[in-house]
Write a structure and sequence with these properties.
heterodimer; A: mainly beta; six-stranded mixed β-sheet; globular; B: six-stranded mixed β-sheet
Amino acid sequence: GQSLEQPSEVTAVEGAIVQINCTYQTSGFYGLSWYQQHDGGAPTFLSYNGLDGLEETGRFSSFLSRSDSYGYLLLQELQMKDSASYFCVVSSYSGAGSYQLTFGKGTKLSVIP
Amino acid sequence: GAGVSQSPSNKVTEKGKDVELRCDPISGHTALYWYRQSLGQGLEFLIYFQGNSAPDKSGLPSDRFSAERTGGSVSTLTIQRTQQEDSAVYLCASSHTSYEQYFGPGTRLTVT
């Protein structure tokens, strides 16, 4: 089966840097992505790692190590609007051109002044 | 262009009634997913459609839940004989890649 582990809550100060870790166990692993969800809103795509290494998109970066079954999301220069839940998502190949996406339980980030 | 749309946005129903939730995916997206999210919780996978392949129904919680996708586009999630534990936000997403999903605004279902 598939399993993902990420912290349930993180608190950080405005302007700081925060890292949200994700470890996973899955068969047919294809890639790791991250989604952001504000309270009352729908999840929105942030980043994807199909290969090992760091992907940078503005203030957000995401990292993947396939050998360690581990990834993280790094948020820099935190802003109050970054307060949201962040989901680690594993893509796994299930055959015949089909992919299964498994969401972690989410990390609630609270940014404080 | 238009994003994923869902209807209704809110649905209040009595226990035991059937409900239908609709999802209009982004045109051209071959993959369509249904999820359920309870307050403050993560996303629970329900069902996945990919092109003309048989749907992955492995996440459906009981045989009261069913879904279909007509013409590779619009999808309907049906819950029969609703129970109070079915109360949640039901999210639909569509995709044309293996990782980037576009979510609709969701349908908030309340079973009284």
